[in-house]
Predict the 3D structure of the following.
Amino acid sequence: MRSGALRPEMQFATLAQQGETAQLGMWVFIATETLFFGALLFAYFVYRNLYPEEFAQAAKETVLWCGILNTGLLLTSSLTMVLAIEAAAAGRRQALTNWLLATAALGIAFILIKSYEWYLDYQDGVVPAVHFFMKLDQAPAGELFWVFYFIATPLHALHLSIGVGLLFFMLTRARRGELTSGYFAPLEVVGLYWSFVDTVWIFLFPAIYLVGRS
Amino acid sequence: MAALAADVGTDYLTSENTVRSWLLTRDHKRIGLLFFASITFFFFIGGIAATLIRLHLATPSGLLQPSIYNRVFTMHGIVMVWFFLIPSIPTTLGNFVLPLMIGAHDLAFPRINLASWYVFNLSGLVLLYALIMGGADAGWTFYPPFSTLYSDGYILVAALAVFVNGFSTIMTALNFVVTTHRLRAPGMTWMRLPLFVWAIYSVSLLMLLATPVLAMVLLLVAAERFLQVGLFDPTHGGDPILFQHIFWFYSHPAVYIMIVPAMGVVSELVTCFARRPIFGYTGMAYALMAIAILSFFVWAHHMFVAGISIYSAVVFSLMTFFVAVPSAIKVFNWTATLHKGSISFDAPFLYALGFVLLFTIGGVTGLMVATLGLDIDLHDTYFVIAHFHYIMVGGTVSAFFGGLHYWWPKITGRLYPELWARFAALLTFVGFNLTFFPQFILGYLGMPRRYYTYAPEWQPWNLLSSAGASILAVAYLLPLGYLAWSMLRGERAGPNPWRATGLEWQTSSPPPTYNFARTPAVTTAPYAYNPENGSYVAQDGTVHA
């Protein structure tokens, strides 16, 4: 580590201990988040199981190409996130900045495409309570599918937006020279969070777009 | 004795005393006191509601309009569960004592700890807004379809308050888990942790895994009520029973969130005032973890008459009997610790003794309502009310007061007046039993919960209960008076007035800002008391004759 670098906060003996502690904190938080999204998916699958036909019919109206494209973007963003961490570990500051920017750009692209998809959904008249036409072959449970869709996807997008905010926070910290090859735990913590949000999508994508589509 | 203590004059209370230094503090001890102020405020809000309930029920004709009565008992439940009982011991005593006990200089994330207090107060303000605007009337359980379709109260605001409150719970619990894993002093192995730390650790796991489920189900209820989309409404294809499953998946563990920290406090008190090592330390630690894990698999015992299948009811009844095993282990071990001990009946010990008795009654009656046949009769009667008040008020609140008295000299540096405190402890026990034992009888006679009126022949028992409540109110107000007095006039306590073994007692009272002058090294298991001659070995290895 370079001279004049960071010192651990007073409750920690070493920077290494501080970094490990921060990572454990994020893992614990992810456990909490898993139960949060888990409860939603649980309720969703209970209803899916109760009304398989109606849900399958409703799910066919989701915009598949948006879902597929977004899945590709998010998976790629996890790669660039890992490359950013690797760049930080190797002390390549320019590469770190570039990979962070690439990750943020992919995240923002996801949100833009998702927003466009919601706009398409609105035009299709599948937004419950706002703009919704019940199809005869889906009544009454078809609406439930869309209620879950409009709870799950904005919640995921909210988590992703927070992730993008954290990436920009990491960019400023990198610029201030606070992320060195000796201490880049904050970046690893953000990376864990980013991968978790990615993983949530890995579960949401097939559950919403793919099941019963054939 | 105070080898770990810093120089006098630098304790956490006097080191800096501007308003700003309190509101922006990162010291876990100060944040513990901030939480103490907040939860005391809400204890009184919930207490006022309880007083109104008991006044109303003193006569069958009552005092309040039926619709007002519904709002009062709903507010009593919401405030007491989420704004007092769940945060009570963890955020105050846990916050203050846990880092001291494990020899840490602070919690792992001091800023998150402070943020937790602000979020708690924010959620409290939202709840007060709901209260001022007219309150909510759906009961603390928010059951749809009443909460989503029919109720005209401020359900959304109240649910939002509970939702925001959950963030505070999660932040505090996350801090405790990570701190216990990463910041233990050298030599403080898991099997040397004081049982209070084990209790706070296992309750934090419960909070972390249960609270998000409540958040999600409240979100779904809010969506249904706000958007009128019918998530749990059968006419829209929804299933109200599903709500109950998800709600109780949180709320049964929440019962243990309230009682497990109390068990931790009582373990400290019993061993210290009996001057004996705790009986079966390993069993006690594992019992806490077993309670935490098993409590996730008993939720449907709240739903035996809601229309679940008889087979799942049998399984959930059986699981409930299983969770009683580790609870009983704890009661037996506390009792066995007293055997051949050198007991002194100081106020904290009286509270602990009260806890063991009342928790046992609450636990055994809990098994009665978990029995399928009996529950058909007792479900939604005052028997259930009495049962869970024995656990939560007789158990948790007694332990909270016991712990408060026990650590008071550490928190303030002053001794409380012992005679007054013993009187308050006894009064609590008497007042509590007078309030809630008649409710067992009322429930057995068939008086349903949540009704604003009752058959005239039940009035004597209700009157007895209301009379007991007034005694209980005095018993809870007394400490407020004499503890405040002791802060100014109480005798100086010295570092270790109880001659206790925990690391928190080896530093000065009140402790310095960063707890210890140097990081302690732990060489022994906790509770190395000797009842024969009163000697003990503190956890930092110092021997005291």
Q: What stands out?
A: Chain A has one domain: 17-210. The domain at 17-210 of chain A is CATH 1.20.120.80 (Four Helix Bundle (Hemerythrin (Met), subunit A)). Helices of chain A lie at 15-50, 52-59, 64-90, 93-124, 142-175, 185-210. Strands of chain A lie at 126-127, 131-132.
